[in-house]
Amino acid sequence: MKKYRPLIEIIIFILAVILLSSCNNKIINHQNKSDISGREKVLLNKEWLFMQYDSAEEADDLIYDVRPEVTDARDDKPADAEPTEAIEVTTKQEVLKPWILPTGNKFIKDSTQHYDRPTGNPGENFPFVQSDFNDSSWQTVDLPHDWAIKGPFLEGWDTEVGGGMGRLPSPGVAWYRKEIYIPVADKNKSVFLDVDGAMSYSMVWINGKLAGGWPYGYTSWRLDITPYLNIGEENQIAIRLDNPPNSSRWYPGGGIYRNVWLVKTNPIHVGQWGTFIKSKDVSKASAKLELEVSIDNDSEKEVLVQTNTQIFSFKKNGEKDKDAITTFDTSEKRVPAKSTIKILDSITIEDPNLWGPPPTQTPNLYIAETTIAVGGEIVDIYKTQFGIRKVEFNGEKGVIVNGEPIFIKGVNQHHDLGALGAAFNKRAAERQLEKLKEMGVNAIRMAHNPPATELLDLTDKMGFLVVDEMYDSWERKKTPLDFHLIFPEWHEQDLRALIRRDRNNPSVIMWSTGNEVGEQYTGEEGAKVARRLREIANDEDPSRPTTASFNYAKPDMPITEESEVINLNYQGEGIRNAPAYAHLEGINTPPLYPAFHEKYPNKVIISSENAAAVSSRGTYVFPVTAGISAPVSDTTGGDPENNYVSAYGLYTTSFGASPDKVFTSVDKHPYVAGGFVWSGWDYLGEPTPYYLSRSSYFGVIDLAGFKKDRFYLYQSRWRPDHPMAHILPHWNWPDRKGEITPVHVFTSGDEAELFLNGKSMGRKKKGKYEYRLRWDDVVYKPGELKVTAYKNGKEWAEDVVKTTGQPARLKISADRNNIKADGKDLAFITVEIVDEEGLTVPTAINNVQFEVEGPGEIVATDNGDPTNMNPFPSHQRKAFNGKALVIVRPTAGKPGAIKVKARSEGLSNSEITIESHSDNEL
Ligand code: GAL
Question: Where is each Glycoside hydrolase family 2 catalytic domain found (predicted)?
Fold first, then answer.
């Protein structure tokens, strides 16, 4: 009988797996109670106690490390300024870094380089880490939490936080505390604290003991808190964050701004991000799946484990299909005590539903369910969402997905969500992606840091291609206290953590290790750093190429050898090389696509950043440049009195190029695989060219989510089959009667006729390398502008713009009228100031007051105006060029009607009702 035992155990195990797959149908990511395997993943977002010191001087001295003194705090340097060398600092002060570094050991490949935890427990006597500390005066907050987004905005030239970082109080030292009860039933469990993102320099104490932490504010990280827990009791978590000033070129946010989870497993379990599923030999007929599973044995005994992985189709509602499509063979392996092993397996799947970008392909997903058993008893079940696709990189044809060349119609996106700040919210991110999709976008570059995992979940489901990026600086700094300070000690851990976390996301097509890093300006020295990062990335994931974005490095510089895909910022179309830019100082580069293509004929070239065009939605400045691209200045496209930039879409930063110029350049170099616009949405910080503002002018969509005119220029190019025409500017110019007021039209047609008050202004056809139709000599007369666009000689689309009357009433509309009563969903409600006939008054700036009745609350308001210093939580907002936005959150667990009312003096009110539904109703 003894001889048959292993066989019997395997049979019991297989039966258990079959039984389980029929009853357990939820994805682990969304699951918050223990399944039969004993794995439990609980969202730990509710009711943290929070305290922030009033100033850095008052903060405690439990510091991660000393920092260099800041001698030059200006954050208005141009984005293409050359990064400079790091400064070395030495100190005798006690720093806590030695206790934090071991947290990253699992991400350092060479175990001889692992950090040993020193003896002692720094901070253990500090009151905030004690369980009996009275924190009742602290503020109660729910995560994700961004301590700075509520403001106030710091206005003026010499403020502690300038325009570069968004004028919001993100720097500072703060503490979060929470008690968690660990029941006796968890006595033999491994317990982990998973932090998806905290800004920054996190250090965690559990029951007064410093358990570890992680400095980079964008990395997701895990702490094994098992050794510090008291079973059958309340346990005190205390997290200290320290967000330095002068640490970023944009708004970083501050606080625990992503989810925090408590994960409990049996001691034998799938490791953190412990599965990797690669698809090989992919065709419509079949695909080979290679599976890697890391199994951790946290116990003191060696064990024999049986592993089995089943593959399921993914259903739309986030659940897996009932029956498994196929199963990897059950394998058996020994896992020594206190160690990790890897199990490798492969399988061929017939007729796979491939993952690919719409509209020509479908982003199909699968779920792999890995079950681990010991002695026939299931000890862990772990689910992995993945996609099957083949991505090829071809120097002539570009990026090829499942055999189809996909031209990259991409945008760069920063991590903030406008008025909601850095605090991640899935609906807000989804709304950003929806609008980008409407524009025709099929790719996102995560500029310049790891995104929230939920964002990649969305890009997977919606079918975007993603460049997943690590850093904005390596060893050379861009701002005095940016993350160059931790690069030498943390780059391996950060990069491996990013790749392990995101390697199963089919939307991710390449890893970018850096953006415009200072190492470009060095020779072999910089190439060495790039090589090290490439080797780490290749080691973690040989299936995707690695890149870094260059705005300076030339083809003959050694650093470019290290990029497996050539990602060029602005250099492709040339920097400051057009006549309108000739007088400017700074990097000057001719179009470099040909030089790079010649040097690297087999490498794909992507314009990872292009345009850097700037505009304020609905604002037009005259005269309009006759060229196709011009640098913005106080006299060209800029309105220095109001700090606005004209929205004709022709004005750019000194190193940028208008969309038209970028299109021309890409079309002249057909091997270019496409590119990423800087930027898709406006973001907080970097308000070039008007430093006194609080948010950017780069977005094709403004900070509130309203489309600027440029939206339609991109749509006309990226969705050629979508009939559309768009006229600009608006036609309310009482002071311009008789004056030349150029009219431009963006259309996916090839020809159009413009009429002013019924009179033809002429029919025009797009010439070669022309992307807009322009009637630059129209003399303004109030009335109606109408355009009829043609494609191949046939009527294709129409647009009408009318001179409106005075503001008369408010018009209110919502992005969705039905939302979930889960306390996380959001309704984005737009208010337009309209005239008697219901036409939006394009210059209206009326002040609007918002109010909510029913189970919901106002989270923020905005209007997309980068100069508006009214704090985001305010319930009143001036319209900007006719529009304002209010963001409403439903109360968790209280379904019902939420009435949102808008009032404005002298105008008729308006209201809308949003239905908030319980989970099972939607
Ligand atoms: C680039 C940089 C971006 C942004 C952009 C616009 O040089 O990579 O992060 O700063 O310029 O200013």
Answer: 397-571
> How much distance in Å is there from the Cα of 541 to the middle of ligand 1?
28
The three-class DSSP label of residue 710 is: helix
User: Is the Cβ–Cβ distance between 666 and 89 less than 8 Å?
Assistant: no
Among residues 585, 639, 687, the alpha carbon closest in space to that of 157 is found at: 687
What is the phi/psi pair of residue 167, to 5°?
60, 15
Q: What is the pLDDT of residue 29?
A: 34
CB 421 within 8 A of CB 257: yes
Cα of 617 vs centre of ligand 1, distance in Å, is 20
Cβ 569 under 6 angstroms from ligand 1: yes
User: Is the CB of 79 within 6 Å of ligand 1?
Assistant: yes
Residue ranges, the chain, pLDDT below 50: 1-2, 22-33
Are 2-17+269-386 and 728-802 in the same CATH fold?
yes
* First-to-last C-alpha distance (Å) of the chain: 54
The pTM for the full model equals 0.95
Q: Is the CB of 609 under 6 A from ligand 1?
A: yes
Residue nearest to atom 2 of ligand 1 (CA): 79
Instruction: State how far the Cα of 56 lies from the Cα of 52, in Å rounded to an integer.
Output: 10
- Centre of ligand 1 to C-alpha 80, Å, is 7
pLDDT at 83: 81
Work out which ligand 1 atom sits closest to the CA atom of 516.
8
Mark out the alpha helices in 38-105 (DSSP H runs).
Answer: 97-100
| pLDDT tens digits along 827-853 | 999 999 999 999 999 999 999 999 999
Q: Which of 371, 325, 357 is nearest to 460 (CA)?
A: 357
Looking at residue 474, its pLDDT comes to 97
- Domain 728-802, what fold? Immunoglobulin-like (2.60.40)
SS (H, E, C) 548-559: EEECCCCCCCHH
Q: How far is the CA of 631 from the centre of ligand 1 (A)?
A: 15
Residue nearest ligand 1's atom 1 by CA:
79
Query: 347-399, pLDDT tens digit by residue?
Result: 999 999 999 999 999 999 999 999 999 999 999 999 999 999 999 999 999 99
Among all residues, which ones are annotated catalytic?
516, 609
The residue nearest atom 4 of ligand 1, judged by CA position, is 79
Token digits of residue 517 = 């890093």
Q: Given this model, what pLDDT does residue 11 score?
A: 60
- Ligand 1 lined by 80 (C-beta under 6 Å): yes
CATH 3.40.50.700 fits 809-921, yes or no: no
In this structure, the strands spanning 303-313 and 366-374 are: antiparallel
For the Cβ of 446 lying below 6 angstroms from any atom of ligand 1, the answer is no
Site to probe by mutation for ligand 1, drawn from 249, 413, 676, 686 as the one with most ligand atoms within 8 Å of Cβ, is 686
**Residue 537: Cβ-neighbour burial (10 angstroms; 0-12, 13-18, 19+):** buried
Indicate which atom in ligand 1 lies nearest the CA of residue 447. Answer: 9
Which among 848, 864, 841 has a CA at the least distance from the CA of 908?
848
